[in-house]
Task: inverse folding
């Protein structure tokens, strides 16, 4: 397994890409292991929030270029890119919030992976890039995720030059939520994860899944869809409990149904 | 009536949500009153620009939770969320520019209301939040408006934690245009409103309505549509007068037709 | 010809709008000359990157108002706006990266032109505006390009007031990539252009064309499409060479096929 998982308490599960000798490259094997892990955790009642990070020197360097270069037919290249896309879709369409915790480099498909998470935090010296252009292979799939987070001219600059950006700038442009010193990153990410895990995970499931869907709809359709979702949400025990608790000025006690 | 209107001169109409004892909550009654008010002003020849604000301590706390909690069937919840969505669509699809003038809190559907206006200004100590997750009811309809103004990871942080943001940050992320001291807010909003009301309101009507429509189209369709709209606009007396005035270096005199 | 071209070496071609006595207004003639120039350069093997600028006092003031005011029938107005849109689409859909190099004013359709380029750089005292509202003719086609680069409330402020913004702010909101002193702008733009022209232009062609297409697709379709495009890209000699060079730690030698 190129992926490890660790329970951190409070319903927080840590997913660690564990192939440090290839800078956690997203090889066929690692992609499959990640996809299986996210599929499993999506159904795991003891997982309410997921923190995704890389082991060793950094987050992920992207595809494994030795492997990519060794593949000799189109079909297998397509399989690789489709598998990678499937993993990204799984994170977006899953029920549980996923927080990327980035140190070192998040490059190419590694940058896409961080961009695909619901939230992302990094060390202040982390770097992000879509450098495919430097090896003659444009970051076409990575740009799908990144270009939905940052504005177009900034994205084009990254894609056309391949130049990395630093964490402070990544925050400014909306690619990550915030950056912290190496020492503080873990504490800060855990703080956010704990706060989110203290909410009703039924509510969060409904909300996360509605969020990405409504973004792709025209305004009128988005309102029709989310009005239905809020009605479904209101019928849950947790919304009733939450509103009662609010009116009675006490802490809610979630049943997650 | 939970909504008051006031003529401020220069074609500027002030709409005031007036249910301060519930922090201008968006109850069935207030939503209906707002919808009726915006419908009426859209046809009012003496209204060229609308300034929307809340009375009392702040802008609006969102839905009336006592009312929401008291509703016992799905159909009435759906009616409530649909009515709320209808109001938001009315503001977006209306002919007149609407400026939100926010003090205190703009939370949940209140935040959505400010986000739905064409422009928004606030006091420096105003706060904005989508805190539904704290009461087990995800801000699914509010996020439709807010997520079309701010980038995705910032929005997700607001939705998953429920934490409020301050006015300075709301400006940075594009949720509001600017913020001012309590003393200056009124003067600054009036200045903008007057500037806009000095333009041809026929031109602004064509432009505002084209703006939101073209945003939802692919680039090629957006160009076809707006090229037609500019041609319609060019056929108006005001465009002819405006161009003549420009070439003759004099002030234009609008006929609004 | 109201448009000049100049070879700057390294596959960089300079396109200069050359009608300084009308502030490089986008008249029928200038639009046609630009369209022909971009069409020609798109097929020119010696052009890898295009730098677009205005001659004289500034970039472009937008449509030629004398000409627009003199047109007496709708059909010719529609022809003008359609021709202008065709030019903008040509830049977006073309194979070669286009960098706007802006000094002075980029107003109305001139602002649209800068916004339509893949990258944009300006002098620190350049200004940008969508001021059509001041002459009774809303900037409906310009807003198509600009509103796809900047957030909605900022765009609405520009459209409803017609007020210009300065270069520093244009950078903050994502309308341009960066701004430099008059002295440094040329050097900096050339630096970027040279960096981009040093890449495989086959790779850049595939990437640029995929970029704008995937932006208009739902996430799942965008991944399917770009996975195919990456597979096509991988089958090229340049991707193979680029990956080999990377693994062998040497500089790649592009064949552009």
Result:
């Amino acid at each position: 397994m190129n992926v490890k998982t660790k329970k951190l308490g409070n319903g927080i599960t840590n997913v660690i890409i564990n192939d440090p000798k290839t800078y956690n490259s997203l090889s066929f094997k690692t992609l499959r292991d990640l996809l299986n892990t996210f599929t499993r955790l999506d159904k795991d009642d003891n997982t309410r929030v997921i923190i995704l990070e890389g082991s060793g020197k950094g987050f992920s360097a992207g595809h494994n270029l030795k492997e990519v270069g060794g593949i000799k037919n189109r079909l297998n290249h397509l399989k690789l890119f489709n598998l990678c896309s499937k993993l990204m879709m799984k994170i977006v369409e899953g029920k549980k919030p996923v927080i990327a915790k980035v140190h070192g480099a998040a490059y190419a498909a590694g940058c896409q992976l961080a961009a695909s998470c619901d939230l992302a935090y990094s060390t202040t010296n982390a770097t992000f890039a879509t450098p495919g252009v430097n090896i003659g292979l444009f970051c076409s799939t990575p740009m799908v995720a990144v270009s939905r987070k940052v504005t177009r001219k900034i994205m084009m600059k990254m894609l056309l030059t391949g130049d990395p950006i630093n964490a402070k700038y990544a925050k400014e442009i909306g690619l990550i939520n915030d950056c912290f010193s190496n020492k503080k990153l873990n504490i800060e990410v855990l703080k956010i994860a704990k706060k989110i895990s203290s909410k009703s995970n039924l509510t969060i499931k409904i909300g996360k899944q509605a969020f990405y869907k409504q973004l792709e709809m025209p305004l009128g359709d988005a309102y029709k869809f989310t009005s239905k979702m809020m009605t479904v949400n209101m019928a849950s025990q947790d919304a009733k409990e939450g509103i009662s608790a609010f009116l009675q000025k006490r802490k809610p006690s979630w049943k997650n149904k």
Observations:
- The radius of gyration of chain B is 19 Å.
- The longest strand of chain B covers residues 12-17.
